Amino acid sequence: MDFASPAPVPAPVTTIAWRLAHIIVSCLAYRVEWYFDGQDFDAEAFAYAGTADEALKQLDEMYGRWNAGVRELSDADLDNPPAMGPERFPMENRVLHVNRELIHHGAEISLLRDLYRWQDGAAPHRI
User: What is the pTM of this model?
Assistant: First the structure.
């Protein structure tokens, strides 16, 4: 996954692979490590997937860890900010934010898949 600072203008169209990596690392892995494991996360040391199958396995693992962690939160946990990480909003806000991000970026992936299937006006590709 690459980033440029400052961001290029115009911004490039991102790929399905980039969006999956963003969901796996930026949306889930950071928060899973901060909120539920109490440790920092090093995105540069993460072994980004080299194939779609690998990315889907990483997504399933991180989402499973996220879901399990959220299910363990008490009402008091939801009212307070996480103990680790830079985010100082109550956990209920963080849970809603992460789930909104998953929906948002998941929908973008679906759109990119649809565009790929119908590219050049051809019959849909099977993916």
Answer: 0.86
